[in-house]
Amino acid sequence: MALLAAWLGGSISKARGVVGRSLMGQPRLDVTVFMDYVCPFCYVGAVRLERLRDTYDLRVHWALVELHPETPAQGRLLAALGYPPEQWRRMMRHLEAMAETEGLSFVPREKTVNSRCALLLAEAAKEADREVFYALHWRLFEAYFAEGRDIGDETVLRELARTAGVPQATVSAAWREPRYARRLARNLAIAGAWGVSGTPTYLFNRRKLAGAVPTETLREAAAEIAE
User: Fold this and answer.
1) pLDDT at residue 218, rounded to an integer
2) Which CATH number do you get for residue 83?
3) Among candidate residues 68, 64, 70, the one with its CA nearest the CA of residue 46
4) Which residues touch 45 (CB under 8 Å, ≥6 apart)?
5) For position 92, what pLDDT does the model report?
6) How would residue 80 be classed by pLDDT, with cut points 50, 70 and 90?
7) Is 77 exposed, middle or buried (0-12, 13-18, 19+ CB in 10 A)?
8) How far apart are CA 224 and CA 209, in angstroms?
9) Backbone angles phi, psi at 31, to 5 degrees
10) Reduced to 3 states, what is the DSSP secondary structure of residue 4?
11) 102-131 burial string, b = 16+ CB within 10 Å, else e?
């Protein structure tokens, strides 16, 4: 449990939801989310979590993990992910309903991509600036799901990073410096310690929520911490 204790005590990687009071008067809410940019439910979940900003000074630790690390560099057919056909159809119907509710656009795609380079880039962008990270964060989701782009391709990622304002030095370091790969490994280890088995998974204090739960469920979890 030493790794878990160290992670909980980290300044930017708090796994426990915490409510304090911000300078703007809103209660501060710290939440951890385990996620991957190629997970459509993570996109929906991230949009829903954003709605809590109308009530809280929301501080999210995005614990980035590879949903399908076995995906080759050239991508993988969705049909090869191994879901039974009926289960896949149910998942897609559920996703389409959620996307419509949230006003999100998903283009049809036949393949998933390897997300490791995108996750490393996002980890590096956290060091640049909070606004820069969030600009990249949303561009990665939009590029993959709304535009059908390959966020496993370094050329695509460099373009997205440039438009998000990520410094070139940060982009280069993302795939060269081993500390970012170590962060992904640590995120995965902590996910295992918390019993995380899928994405997205939220941690509000000791309460764990799995999946793209409704916004109201997120509000209820936040309110429990505030009590």
Assistant:
1) 98
2) 3.40.30.10
3) 64
4) 33, 35, 200, 202, 211, 212, 213
5) 87
6) confident
7) exposed
8) 13
9) -135, 145
10) helix
11) eebebeeeeebbbbbbbbbbbbbbbebeee
Provide mean pLDDT across the span 79-100. Answer: 87
What region, left, alpha or beta, does residue 174 occupy, with left being phi > 0 and alpha being psi -120 to 50 degrees?
alpha
- CA 208 from chain center: how many Å? 15
3-class DSSP state for residue 215? Answer: helix
Measured distance CA(29)–CA(58) in Å, rounded: 5
**Distant-in-sequence contacts of 217-221, Cβ < 8 A, 24+ apart:** 218/48, 218/49, 218/51, 218/52, 219/52, 219/55, 221/17
Are 132 and 124 in contact by the 8 Å Cβ rule? The answer is no
Assign 28 to helix, strand or coil. strand
The dihedral sign for the CA sequence 177, 118, 34, 227: positive
Extended strands (E) in the chain: 18-21, 27-35, 57-64, 76-77, 111-112, 201-204, 207-210
DSSP notation for 62-120:
EEE--S-TT--TT-EEGGGG---HHHHHHHHHHHHHHHHHHT------SEE---HHHHH
Range of the domain at 103: 2-226
Number of domains in the chain: 1
Tell me the C-alpha distance between 26 and 181, whole Å: 35
List % helix, strand, coil for the chain (3-state, nearest 5): 55, 15, 30
- Which residue is associated with the tokens 């979590």? 49
* Total-model pTM: 0.87
pLDDT band at 79 (very low <50, low <70, confident <90, very high): confident
